[in-house]
Write a structure and sequence with these properties.
By secondary structure, the chain is mainly alpha-helical. The chain has one domain (2-72). The protein contains four helices and no strands. It is globular, with a radius of gyration of 11 Å. The two termini are 13 Å apart.
Amino acid sequence: MKFRLILLPLLLAAAAPALAGSGTAEQQDACRPDVRRFCHKIRADAGDGEFLACLQANRARLSVNCRAVLESHGM
C-alpha cells in the first residue's frame, strides 16, 4: 500500500505535469521520460494499475534510473 501511495502520484505527475505528485522530485524525474515514451496512450485518469503494467511490460527498455525507482519499491 505504501508503494501505491508513492508511485501513483509519481506516475500521474509524469503523465500529466499539471498534477502535483507526492513522490520526490528525483523519482518523478527518473520515470517521467519513460512514462511519456512507453505509456503515452494511457489516459492520466486510468489509474496506477495501468501505468504499472505499462512500465513492467517495458521493464527491459526502461531507463536505469526509472528501473531503480521501481526496484526500490519492490517492483
